[in-house]
Design goal:
- This protein is of the alpha+beta class.
- The chain is built from 11 helices and 9 strands.
- The strands form 2 sheets. Strands 1, 2, 3, 4, 5, 6 and 7 form a 7-stranded antiparallel β-sheet that branches.
- The radius of gyration is 20 Å and the shape is globular.
- About 35% of the residues are buried.
């Protein structure tokens, strides 16, 4: 059953499935979405290993529990990793993981719009593990699109599906360095939108206005708002706020935070009352309760 399920959802070679340390074997997999964008969740008490190919999609995987390795490199829990093109080895043991598949043509189109080049095949930085603001930008996208892809908000129209896959592509491209094949890793993104995105991510802890972003990017307010709505589905300051809240949650849950006030300052949210209200609205808990470990 497990071997058949994995073979149906992945292009694999030499697939092996076995129990872990003599324990009872259990396997559960759910797959939702469409050909353009899908999310797959897998839970398994045993070991699954072999080789996998990404095929015509861009595939992002993140480990939620247990152990996993791709290309022989152990994965960090909660950190998205991109499957490269071509065959690569994998090994999962006693694990829970999620996989998002994004239409490759859409990724290349969005990359061209952000980078200022013609749509072309992309190279991604091998084995890159995002952190900080780029990592938060990825989770912001996942949180935004998952309810619709998972079906909890009802059927998705073709137009909305195309919007969602573009949002997913933008989140991925923010999190993982990339460049057109043959142009070298130093090829910079040249559009004004790319400059605006970089300015926001580089100034997370500072007070930023729309005017600050427009000046840094050389855009009008209307142009900036329109570009962010088209690529990210939200305004630039709403995008910034979402990233700040996710960074705050990571700090609060790390067990290393000094205080709620220190966390809020570190992500540029200096009004504690508004920070607490926004945090609870987004995550269902007050930041002080998270810091104290109150469930």
């Amino acid at each position: 059953m497990a071997r058949d399920a994995v073979a149906r959802t992945h292009l694999t070679h030499g697939l092996q499935v076995s129990a872990l340390d003599g324990a009872a074997f259990a396997f559960e997999e759910t797959l939702t979405g469409t050909q353009l964008l899908s999310v797959e969740s897998t839970r398994c008490s045993g070991i699954v290993r072999g080789e996998v190919e990404s095929g015509g999609d861009v595939i992002v995987v993140w480990l939620k529990s247990g152990c996993g390795a791709v290309d022989g490199k152990p994965l960090l829990r909660g950190r998205p990793v991109l499957y490269r093109e071509g065959r690569q080895s994998f090994r999962w043991a006693g694990f829970q993981k999620d996989v998002m598949r994004i239409d490759r043509a859409t990724v290349e189109q969005v990359a061209a719009e952000r980078g200022g080049w013609n749509p072309a095949p992309l190279e991604f930085k091998p084995h890159h593990v995002p952190e900080g603001a780029p990592l938060a930008a990825w989770w912001l996208v996942v949180r935004a699109i998952a309810p619709e892809i998972l079906g909890s908000t009802g059927p998705v129209s073709l137009e909305r599906e195309q919007e969602l896959v573009r949002f997913a592509a933008a989140g991925l491209l923010t999190a993982v360095p990339h460049w057109p094949v043959g142009q070298g890793r130093e090829a910079p993104a040249r559009t004004r939108l790319a400059k605006a995105e970089a300015f926001l991510l580089d100034h997370i802890a500072e007070r930023i206005s729309v005017d600050d972003v427009t000046q840094a990017a050389g855009m009008s307010v209307r142009g900036l708002q329109g570009a962010f709505q088209r690529i990210h589905g939200v305004s630039p300051l709403f995008y910034l706020k979402g990233i700040r809240l996710l960074l705050a949650r990571e700090q609060l849950e790390s067990g290393e935070a000094e205080s709620v006030a220190a966390v809020a300052r570190s992500v540029g949210l200096t009004h504690l009352g508004r920070f607490a209200a926004s945090y609870k609205a987004e995550f269902g808990q007050l930041p002080g309760d998270v810091l104290r470990g109150i469930a």
